[in-house]
Amino acid sequence: MNQDLFDREIQCPVCKNIFHTKRVKSSACRIEKRDTDFCITYSSTNPMFYGAIVCPMCGYAALESNFKDITPQGKKIIEATITKRWVPRSFGEERDVHDAIEAYKLALVCGQLLNLKKGNLGNICLRLAWLYRFINSEREQEFLAHALNCFEEAFLHEPLPIGNLDEVSLTYLIGELYLRLGRYVESIDWFNKAVGNPLIKRNKKLEMQAREQWRVAKEEFKKLKSEVQVG
Predict the structure, then answer these.
(1) What dihedral do alpha carbons 128, 133, 139, 140 form, nearest 10°?
(2) What SS3 state is found at 6?
(3) Which of 18, 44, 102, 178 could pair with 30 as two cysteines, CB 3.0-4.6 Å apart?
(4) How far is CA 188 from CA 119, 150, 174, 196, in A?
(5) Cα distance between residue 154 and residue 163, in whole Å
(6) Closest to 126 (Cα-Cα) out of 156, 147, 151
(7) Is there a domain that residue 15 lies in?
(8) Domain that holds residue 28
(9) Looking at the 3D structure of the chain, how many domains does it have?
(10) Which InterPro entries match (predicted)?
(11) Within a 10 A sphere around the Cβ of 30, how many other Cβ atoms?
Protein backbone atom coordinates (compact mmCIF):
# COMPACT_ATOMS: atom_id res chain seq x y z
CA MET A 1 0.00 0.00 0.00
CA ASN A 2 1.33 3.43 -1.01
CA GLN A 3 1.81 5.48 2.16
CA ASP A 4 1.85 8.74 0.14
CA LEU A 5 -1.89 8.39 -0.58
CA PHE A 6 -5.05 8.92 1.41
CA ASP A 7 -8.75 8.47 0.62
CA ARG A 8 -11.15 11.33 0.10
CA GLU A 9 -14.91 10.87 0.07
CA ILE A 10 -16.74 12.48 -2.85
CA GLN A 11 -20.40 12.75 -3.79
CA CYS A 12 -21.09 12.83 -7.51
CA PRO A 13 -23.18 15.90 -8.43
CA VAL A 14 -24.80 13.99 -11.30
CA CYS A 15 -25.96 10.67 -9.80
CA LYS A 16 -25.43 11.44 -6.06
CA ASN A 17 -23.28 8.31 -5.67
CA ILE A 18 -20.78 8.55 -2.79
CA PHE A 19 -17.35 7.12 -3.60
CA HIS A 20 -13.69 7.41 -2.63
CA THR A 21 -10.80 8.79 -4.63
CA LYS A 22 -7.10 8.95 -3.80
CA ARG A 23 -5.10 12.08 -3.10
CA VAL A 24 -1.40 12.53 -2.42
CA LYS A 25 -0.37 13.88 0.99
CA SER A 26 1.22 17.31 0.52
CA SER A 27 3.99 16.29 2.94
CA ALA A 28 4.89 13.42 0.58
CA CYS A 29 5.42 15.56 -2.55
CA ARG A 30 9.10 15.76 -3.54
CA ILE A 31 9.86 17.79 -6.65
CA GLU A 32 12.62 16.53 -8.93
CA LYS A 33 12.46 19.18 -11.68
CA ARG A 34 10.25 21.81 -13.30
CA ASP A 35 9.98 22.15 -17.08
CA THR A 36 9.68 25.51 -18.80
CA ASP A 37 5.96 24.92 -19.50
CA PHE A 38 5.31 24.47 -15.73
CA CYS A 39 5.27 20.65 -15.84
CA ILE A 40 6.59 19.22 -12.56
CA THR A 41 8.36 15.88 -12.29
CA TYR A 42 8.25 14.31 -8.84
CA SER A 43 10.67 11.84 -7.31
CA SER A 44 7.71 10.75 -5.18
CA THR A 45 4.12 9.85 -6.13
CA ASN A 46 2.86 12.34 -8.71
CA PRO A 47 -0.22 14.23 -7.40
CA MET A 48 -1.23 15.10 -10.97
CA PHE A 49 -2.20 11.45 -11.50
CA TYR A 50 -5.15 12.08 -9.19
CA GLY A 51 -6.25 15.53 -10.41
CA ALA A 52 -9.13 14.23 -12.53
CA ILE A 53 -12.03 12.70 -10.59
CA VAL A 54 -14.23 10.03 -12.18
CA CYS A 55 -17.52 8.81 -10.74
CA PRO A 56 -17.47 5.00 -10.95
CA MET A 57 -21.27 4.80 -11.16
CA CYS A 58 -22.22 7.26 -13.93
CA GLY A 59 -18.89 8.08 -15.64
CA TYR A 60 -18.98 11.83 -15.01
CA ALA A 61 -15.40 13.16 -14.86
CA ALA A 62 -13.83 16.57 -14.26
CA LEU A 63 -10.82 18.24 -12.70
CA GLU A 64 -11.01 18.25 -8.92
CA SER A 65 -11.18 22.06 -8.92
CA ASN A 66 -14.56 22.12 -10.70
CA PHE A 67 -15.98 18.62 -10.26
CA LYS A 68 -19.07 19.94 -8.46
CA ASP A 69 -19.69 22.83 -10.88
CA ILE A 70 -22.37 21.38 -13.12
CA THR A 71 -25.80 22.74 -14.02
CA PRO A 72 -29.08 20.77 -14.10
CA GLN A 73 -28.89 20.89 -17.90
CA GLY A 74 -25.31 19.61 -17.71
CA LYS A 75 -26.42 16.65 -15.61
CA LYS A 76 -28.96 15.72 -18.28
CA ILE A 77 -26.25 15.90 -20.95
CA ILE A 78 -23.95 13.58 -18.98
CA GLU A 79 -26.77 11.11 -18.28
CA ALA A 80 -27.79 11.01 -21.94
CA THR A 81 -24.32 10.82 -23.47
CA ILE A 82 -21.92 9.28 -20.92
CA THR A 83 -23.95 7.31 -18.36
CA LYS A 84 -26.02 5.64 -21.07
CA ARG A 85 -22.88 3.92 -22.40
CA TRP A 86 -20.87 3.72 -19.16
CA VAL A 87 -19.74 0.39 -17.75
CA PRO A 88 -19.20 0.95 -13.97
CA ARG A 89 -15.50 1.16 -13.22
CA SER A 90 -13.51 2.58 -10.32
CA PHE A 91 -10.61 4.99 -10.62
CA GLY A 92 -10.37 5.13 -6.83
CA GLU A 93 -7.26 3.00 -6.37
CA GLU A 94 -3.59 3.85 -6.89
CA ARG A 95 -3.11 5.08 -10.48
CA ASP A 96 -0.25 4.67 -12.90
CA VAL A 97 0.32 7.11 -15.77
CA HIS A 98 -2.00 5.15 -18.10
CA ASP A 99 -4.86 5.25 -15.58
CA ALA A 100 -4.26 9.00 -15.21
CA ILE A 101 -4.37 9.52 -18.99
CA GLU A 102 -7.69 7.68 -19.17
CA ALA A 103 -9.16 9.74 -16.31
CA TYR A 104 -8.11 13.05 -17.89
CA LYS A 105 -9.45 11.97 -21.28
CA LEU A 106 -12.81 11.24 -19.68
CA ALA A 107 -12.68 14.69 -18.07
CA LEU A 108 -11.90 16.22 -21.46
CA VAL A 109 -14.84 14.45 -23.14
CA CYS A 110 -17.20 15.55 -20.38
CA GLY A 111 -15.82 19.08 -20.52
CA GLN A 112 -16.37 19.30 -24.27
CA LEU A 113 -19.92 17.97 -23.94
CA LEU A 114 -20.65 20.53 -21.22
CA ASN A 115 -19.11 23.32 -23.30
CA LEU A 116 -16.72 24.33 -20.52
CA LYS A 117 -14.62 27.47 -20.88
CA LYS A 118 -11.58 27.15 -23.12
CA GLY A 119 -9.26 27.86 -20.21
CA ASN A 120 -10.59 24.83 -18.36
CA LEU A 121 -10.23 22.61 -21.43
CA GLY A 122 -6.72 23.98 -21.98
CA ASN A 123 -5.72 22.93 -18.47
CA ILE A 124 -6.92 19.37 -19.13
CA CYS A 125 -5.12 19.19 -22.49
CA LEU A 126 -1.89 20.55 -21.01
CA ARG A 127 -1.92 17.90 -18.29
CA LEU A 128 -2.56 15.21 -20.89
CA ALA A 129 0.48 16.49 -22.81
CA TRP A 130 2.58 16.25 -19.64
CA LEU A 131 1.37 12.72 -18.93
CA TYR A 132 2.33 11.66 -22.45
CA ARG A 133 5.73 13.33 -21.91
CA PHE A 134 6.34 11.06 -18.93
CA ILE A 135 6.11 8.03 -21.24
CA ASN A 136 7.91 9.69 -24.19
CA SER A 137 4.85 9.48 -26.43
CA GLU A 138 4.51 11.46 -29.66
CA ARG A 139 0.97 12.32 -28.57
CA GLU A 140 2.48 14.96 -26.27
CA GLN A 141 2.72 17.32 -29.26
CA GLU A 142 -0.92 16.70 -30.20
CA PHE A 143 -2.16 17.75 -26.77
CA LEU A 144 0.26 20.69 -26.52
CA ALA A 145 -1.36 21.97 -29.74
CA HIS A 146 -4.87 21.46 -28.30
CA ALA A 147 -3.83 23.27 -25.10
CA LEU A 148 -2.36 26.14 -27.09
CA ASN A 149 -5.54 26.62 -29.13
CA CYS A 150 -7.67 26.63 -25.98
CA PHE A 151 -5.41 29.00 -24.03
CA GLU A 152 -5.07 31.48 -26.86
CA GLU A 153 -8.83 31.63 -27.25
CA ALA A 154 -9.24 31.96 -23.48
CA PHE A 155 -6.69 34.78 -23.39
CA LEU A 156 -8.68 36.71 -25.98
CA HIS A 157 -12.22 36.01 -24.80
CA GLU A 158 -12.34 34.82 -21.17
CA PRO A 159 -11.77 36.51 -17.82
CA LEU A 160 -8.39 35.99 -16.15
CA PRO A 161 -6.92 34.42 -14.10
CA ILE A 162 -7.50 30.85 -15.29
CA GLY A 163 -6.73 28.71 -12.26
CA ASN A 164 -3.18 29.67 -11.26
CA LEU A 165 -2.51 31.40 -14.58
CA ASP A 166 -2.70 35.18 -14.38
CA GLU A 167 -2.31 37.42 -17.43
CA VAL A 168 1.50 37.37 -17.41
CA SER A 169 1.96 33.65 -16.77
CA LEU A 170 -0.62 32.76 -19.42
CA THR A 171 1.09 35.08 -21.94
CA TYR A 172 4.40 33.38 -21.16
CA LEU A 173 2.85 29.89 -21.37
CA ILE A 174 1.36 30.58 -24.81
CA GLY A 175 4.81 31.66 -25.98
CA GLU A 176 6.34 28.50 -24.52
CA LEU A 177 3.78 26.24 -26.18
CA TYR A 178 4.44 27.89 -29.55
CA LEU A 179 8.17 27.32 -28.95
CA ARG A 180 7.68 23.64 -28.16
CA LEU A 181 5.60 23.25 -31.32
CA GLY A 182 8.34 24.84 -33.46
CA ARG A 183 6.35 27.98 -34.31
CA TYR A 184 9.11 30.44 -33.51
CA VAL A 185 7.69 33.68 -34.92
CA GLU A 186 4.53 33.39 -32.80
CA SER A 187 6.63 32.28 -29.83
CA ILE A 188 8.88 35.34 -30.02
CA ASP A 189 5.83 37.60 -30.28
CA TRP A 190 4.20 36.16 -27.14
CA PHE A 191 7.45 36.22 -25.14
CA ASN A 192 7.81 39.88 -26.14
CA LYS A 193 4.31 40.53 -24.80
CA ALA A 194 5.16 38.76 -21.53
CA VAL A 195 8.44 40.62 -21.00
CA GLY A 196 6.82 43.93 -21.97
CA ASN A 197 3.98 43.56 -19.46
CA PRO A 198 4.74 45.72 -16.39
CA LEU A 199 3.09 43.10 -14.15
CA ILE A 200 5.94 40.67 -14.84
CA LYS A 201 8.15 42.77 -12.50
CA ARG A 202 6.24 41.17 -9.62
CA ASN A 203 7.60 37.75 -10.61
CA LYS A 204 11.36 37.99 -11.19
CA LYS A 205 11.76 34.24 -11.72
CA LEU A 206 9.16 34.24 -14.50
CA GLU A 207 10.71 37.35 -16.04
CA MET A 208 14.12 35.68 -16.22
CA GLN A 209 12.61 32.53 -17.67
CA ALA A 210 10.64 34.52 -20.27
CA ARG A 211 13.79 36.34 -21.36
CA GLU A 212 15.72 33.07 -21.60
CA GLN A 213 12.99 31.34 -23.61
CA TRP A 214 12.72 34.41 -25.87
CA ARG A 215 16.47 34.00 -26.54
CA VAL A 216 16.00 30.28 -27.27
CA ALA A 217 13.15 31.02 -29.69
CA LYS A 218 15.27 33.64 -31.50
CA GLU A 219 18.18 31.18 -31.82
CA GLU A 220 15.93 28.41 -33.12
CA PHE A 221 14.36 30.78 -35.64
CA LYS A 222 17.81 31.87 -36.91
CA LYS A 223 18.84 28.23 -37.22
CA LEU A 224 15.69 27.41 -39.16
CA LYS A 225 16.19 30.36 -41.53
CA SER A 226 19.79 29.38 -42.25
CA GLU A 227 18.76 25.75 -42.94
CA VAL A 228 16.09 26.95 -45.38
CA GLN A 229 18.63 29.19 -47.19
CA VAL A 230 21.16 26.38 -47.42
CA GLY A 231 18.49 23.97 -48.67
Answers:
(1) 70
(2) strand
(3) 44
(4) 22, 19, 10, 12
(5) 12
(6) 147
(7) yes
(8) 5-117
(9) 1
(10) DUF2225, TPR-like_helical_dom_sf
(11) 10
